Amino acid sequence: xxxxxxxxxxxxxxxxxxxxxxxxxxxxxxxxxxxxxxxxxxxxxxxxxxxxxxxxxxxxxxxxxxxxxxxxxxxxxxxxxxxxxxxxxxxxxxxxxxxxxxxxxxxxxxxxxx
Length: 114
Prior knowledge:
This protein is mainly beta. It has one helix at residues 65-71; strands spanning 3-5, 8-10, 15-16, 21-26, 34-37, 49-50, 57-63, 85-91, 97-98, 101-104, 107-110.
């Protein structure tokens, strides 16, 4: 059964980003398909989508970085440089997709993981 998963690493601390809000939408749509908060390992407890719900097309995962860093007392600009990090990607095949995020208050990197 295909699954869509994510995890977040706080590269500023070198630790998993625990307590970071993640929202999944179809690209261009307002209504969320899934919402979750990362656990102590920086992962969500279940796939954002799986099985027949994971169909080809465009998606967007919004990572709520500003709230995460504010909750940790990070020294941030006002307004915060990275508030919500949108990652738009496409699914073309019936397979697993893992979209990890490496995050700091002033930069990020994302890739298709395994």
